[in-house]
Amino acid sequence: MINDNVILRVKGLTKRFPGVIALDNVDFELRRGEIHGLLGENGAGKSTLVKILYGIYTPDSGEIYVDGRRVTITSPIDALRHGLALVSQNPQLIDRLTVAENLILGLSKLSLMTPIRKVYGKLRELSEELGIEVDPNIEVWKLSYTQKQLVEILKALLLGAKVLMIDEATTLLPLNEKRRFYEFMRRFTLDGGSVILITHKIREALEVSDRITVLRLGKVAGTVRPNEVSIDDVRVMMFGERVKEVSHYIGKQIFTRPKDKVVLEVRDLWVLGDHGTYAVRGVDFRVCKGEILGIAGIAGNGQNELAQSIMGLRKAIKGKVLIDGYDVTNKDVVKIRELGVGYIPDSPLKHGVAPDGSIEDNIAMLPCIAKGIIRWSYVRALAEKLISEYDIMTPSTKTPIKLLSGGNIMKVLVSRELSIAKKLLIAYNPTRALDEATAMKVRRVIRRKAREEGIAILLISEDLDEVLQLSDSVAVMNTGRIVSVIPKEKVVREEIEKLMVAK
Amino acid sequence: MHVTVIKRVKPLPFGNVLIPSLSIVIGVLLASLVLYILMGISPTQFFTYIGEGFISLETLRDFILLTILGTALIISFKGAVWNIGAEGQIAMGMLAAAYVALFTNLSSSPVLGKIMMIVLALILGGMWGLIAGILKAYLAIDEVASTLIMNYIAYYILNYLVRGPWKGKHTYGYIRTDLIPESVHFSTLPIRGITVTYEEVLLLIITLVFAYILLYKTALGVRIRILGSNPEALKVAGVNVKLLTITLLTISGAISGMVGAAQLAGYLHRISYPIETHTPYLGYTAILVAWLSMLDLRAVPIIAFIIGSLNQAGRLLQIAGVGGIAMTYLFIGTILVTFTVLRVFSEYKIKIIRG
């Protein structure tokens, strides 16, 4: 029972949510100095497990041992006292405070009277070690999603965590920073720390983990070592019967650029970022009917501001946005939506869906679905269609979506926007937080929308694989400019990566 | 031993019933305790009056008006828009109805007269909400402050009229308007001691049906509910959030304004100076009704009845010479404080851990 090498042990953990068993008698073991991958599709129970370990949920039954001693964790403060820190999928930071203030806030819980200067010093030291550039004096709401997650990681480290639970946080890190982060994780484990790396990216898990535990529908499907298994073995563990759906074939029809069928045209667009400097600096591009234009780039290079400006959510200072030849520059989002534009925004929980509403509410809130009296039967039918098509795990169409897992909430948003896009779709990281099977499904639908329904698609993604897989042309965005637009047949991955990081 | 507070994943089961009921019971007990300690009123005497409040026929009037007002406020509260201005909206409605009744020929026709009183009250009450809505939507002025301030503007406009241009000819020295013509008085139900009119019962039914359809059957209703939890998502979805805010404050104000017409035509029949002491502060009491109903339309009539009864009990205590109108405020205060405390339990779990 007492194994000196085991820092964290979980026995028979069960957690039920209304209508769903999130965890069903789960055993799990984490060794000292180990990077332990936790794999599973959306709703498999990964997040629930770490949320229990972090004291956000209390289990219905089961035992947790830290250093061989049985513990009860009823709050994040308890968890931190035992050295367990969570870097969440949805950054838990206070938007109005600066990065440094957020970090101090975390610290004061543990030790009062920490000198602020010390925090700054430690922060700078850690930032350099990780190779992450974050200004400690910047307010958190000005950071991109990825940057927020980096701050979360810094916070956990400052708190002196022994076990880092990283919930999908590295999924979208730019390649370079990701590599450096893996190196950091390795160093952290050599110093005696342990990492639980929650991910749905199998390749990533196999590359960096010492061991992998796979969850499927709330049960442990098995614990394996990466050198003993192949990607396909893990896929079978993850998806079971559904493994057939994970095919990287997404259709191959060749795109021929139609003449005079430009749907979205952006001319010399200049948009201010939150810092009062230009985030988008003279961007030009066109997306034709049926075309998928992918914009690759590292987070925070103006992609989000570009998307918001096209949608009428952020003011353009100079330049023009035309949809179907109509000037929609700085028109209200209401007008732009009326043209049949679908939009998958950054920070889905804040800008995409209403967490307190049900799936039905989240569909009915759209003006293109309901005006005046709502036909609930129609809304319910659409909700049920989306649920079955995208395997959204929910007890009913009336359950508040805040009770669903992060991946399932994302599915609600993505499937809704895909179904309402009639002319143009602006997709920002459309498969973030989705498992492989669903991500492939979403990509196939995006492709089909473009080819069969002739919808123009602007795909902005920090996932380069996704951009390369889907796009007819690839544009690279770097410090607010489109540095290059390359037709698909001429794309060389290494060159794109170089353009993404070039200063 | 230490105490920890955890946010509940799911709200407390039956919390929506348990918490308002407990608040009322504990609130009344607290009020009785305060009265016993400070004024030596025996609890037996106190609870006798409370009981009488519940069986008094006069309570029914408060019940009806509070249900209508509670519904008006829920429509706005569900969208996290805090209309504190029902008082002012009632006053504006009363002004509108009085104008129609006293200064137009419409009052010669009972049906048309009454309808026009209600319609103009809806318009003026709605306008009072509309102004606050525009201030909020376009200038980001907090509606709590603006609606509250506008209550006093409404009072004083009415007071000015009653003291000056609208002062009646046959007032025996009182500062008040003439009685409105009998033709536009609402018809009281034929039961002794009852102060409720047919027209008010009709307005109550129409309001409840309207609110139900609005909140649960229309796109506007879904958007009001989502406005309360995530206005950002609503904006991104392409909903005109400014227009939505203005609309819901206007609707809320209009319904409150209608109560002003009912109060004038159904009960007061004239406006006296100063207006604020002659309306029983129903607009503020309705806030309590809306809160205790946990913004659930179905609970509004029940809560309105309970609060109406306590209101009546306060009045009976006043008549018995035990205390002034402050009695009613004491109930409202103790219940609301208890409610605020208890609500913590519906959202959070509190655990005591030994060792």
The structural class of chain A is alpha/beta
Q: What is the total tally of β strands of chain B?
A: 2
Low-confidence stretches of chain B: none
* The number of domains of chain A: 3
CATH first level of the largest domain in chain A: which class? Answer: Alpha Beta
The count of DSSP E runs of length 2 or more, i.e. the number of strands of chain A, is 20
Largest interface: A-B, 41 and 28 residues
What share of the residues of chain A does DSSP label as strand, in percent?
Answer: 25-35%
The low-confidence parts of chain A are none
Q: Which sequence of SSEs, written as H and E, runs from N to C of chain B?
A: EHHHHHHHHHHHHHHE
Question: Can you give the mean pLDDT of chain B?
Answer: 89
Instruction: Please report the distance between the alpha carbons of the first and last residues of chain A.
Output: 54 Å
- Widest β-sheet, arrangement of strands of chain B: 1-2
Helical element count of chain A?
A: 17
Largest sheet of chain A: 6 strands, mixed
Spatial strand sequence of the major β-sheet of chain A: 6-7-8-3-9-10
How many helices of chain B? The count is 14
From the alpha-carbon coordinates, what is the Rg of chain A to the nearest angstrom?
A: 23 Å
Nearest-integer average pLDDT of chain A = 85
Q: What general form of chain B does the structure show?
A: globular
Task: Explain what this protein looks like in three dimensions.
The complex is a heterodimer of chains A (503) and B (355). Chain A is of the alpha/beta class and 503 residues long. Chain A folds into three domains: 6-244, Rossmann fold; 260-340 and 424-435 and 453-503, Rossmann fold; 346-420, no CATH class. Chain A contains 17 helices and 20 strands. Chain A has helices at 46-53, 76-81, 99-108, 116-130, 145-158, 175-190, 202-208, 231-239, 303-310, 333-338, 348-352, 359-364, 376-389, 406-420, 436-453, 464-470, 493-501; strands at residues 6-17, 20-31, 35-39, 61-66, 69-71, 84-87, 163-167, 194-199, 211-216, 219-224, 262-272, 278-288, 292-296, 316-323, 326-327, 341-344, 424-428, 456-461, 473-478, 481-487. In chain A, strands 6-7-8-3-9-10 form a six-stranded mixed β-sheet, sandwiched between helices. Chain A has a six-stranded mixed β-sheet with strand order 16-17-18-13-19-20, with helices on both faces. Chain A has a four-stranded antiparallel β-sheet with strand order 2-1-4-5, with helices on one face. The N and C termini of chain A lie far apart (54 Å). Chain B is mainly alpha-helical and 355 residues long. Helix content of chain B is 70%, strand content 3%. Chain B is built from 14 helices and two strands; from the N terminus they run E-H-H-H-H-H-H-H-H-H-H-H-H-H-H-E. Chain B has helices at 15-39, 43-55, 59-77, 86-103, 110-139, 143-163, 198-217, 219-229, 231-236, 241-268, 275-278, 282-292, 300-319, 326-347, and strands at residues 2-7, 348-353. Chain B has a two-stranded antiparallel sheet. In chain B, helix 1 (15-39) packs antiparallel against helix 14 (326-347) and helix 5 (110-139) packs across helix 6. The longest helix of chain B has 30 residues, at 110-139. The relative contact order of chain B is 0.22. Chains A and B meet through helix 10 and helix 11 of A and strand 1, helix 8 and helix 9 of B.
